[in-house]
Description:
Layout: H1 3-6, H2 41-46, H3 48-55, E1 57-68, E2 71-82, E3 87-93, E4 107-112, E5 115-119, E6 130-134, H4 151-156, E7 161-172, E8 175-185, H5 186-192, H6 195-207, E9 212-219, E10 225-235, E11 242-252
Antiparallel strand pairs: 1-2, 1-11, 2-3, 3-4, 4-5, 5-6, 7-8, 8-9, 9-10, 10-11
Amino acid sequence: MTELQHRGTIVAAGLMACVCLGAGGCAGTGSAAEDPAAADPVGILRHAAGALVDAGTSKAGTSMEMATGHTRVTIRGTGDYDYRRQVGRLRVQLPQTPAGTAEHRPITELLAPGALFMKNRGAGVPADKWVRVDTATLSDGNLVTGGATDPYAAAELLLGTRTATYLGRTEFAGVEVRHYRGTADLAAAAKRASHGVRASLAAAAKGFATAEVPFDVYLDDQGRIRKIRHRFSFVNGRRKSTVAVASTTLLYGFGTPVHVRLPASKDIYAGKIAE
């Protein structure tokens, strides 16, 4: 983990989490061998990010769960994303305390090429100020640090797909989708990624315990991602233990208007973040 992550663990202590929005819509229907989508699953998945750019925008739901030892932490978020500008906005809700009460106000996150902006960060940051993080300096490339994976980074990670299997058609959230399962390589994805995502994926390829990322993804008939679940693994810098993270992103409401305005310099906190 980077020094910045140790100075507050970015979103909350142990914010790297695994996503469990359930395996909803699991059993495939029909014969995979009869479906043209079975012919070249690797090629199809490498075009998924382009299909999102063609769609322009969407709403997004995120869930991330971290498991280490007997401890599990789950963080959820909702927002929207503009794939052509590669900017988005998420409202991230941190886990409740053991007593069942909210430990922290929801954090507002703005996603941009190479940067993560957070408001209601806590840790001594004034409530009216944003914290800016250079995602290329994070050992996970902000695939897990912010408590949610940037939707476009999640899609471009599929550019590094090494192996993939088509599991057939199913239905998810009322939409007919095709289910694929495979493994992507972070270093390979970084080489093919767009300029705004490349450095972050390259940082993750070096910082994770392994550059191989297993995934499950569901595409609609336009080739757009409707649900994607990645399973990451990294080494806890302090305890030297491996932490398992599952990150799930749901995309829907394609074409929805998205208006994201990044903070002005005067609104970005430049002071020290408390431990």
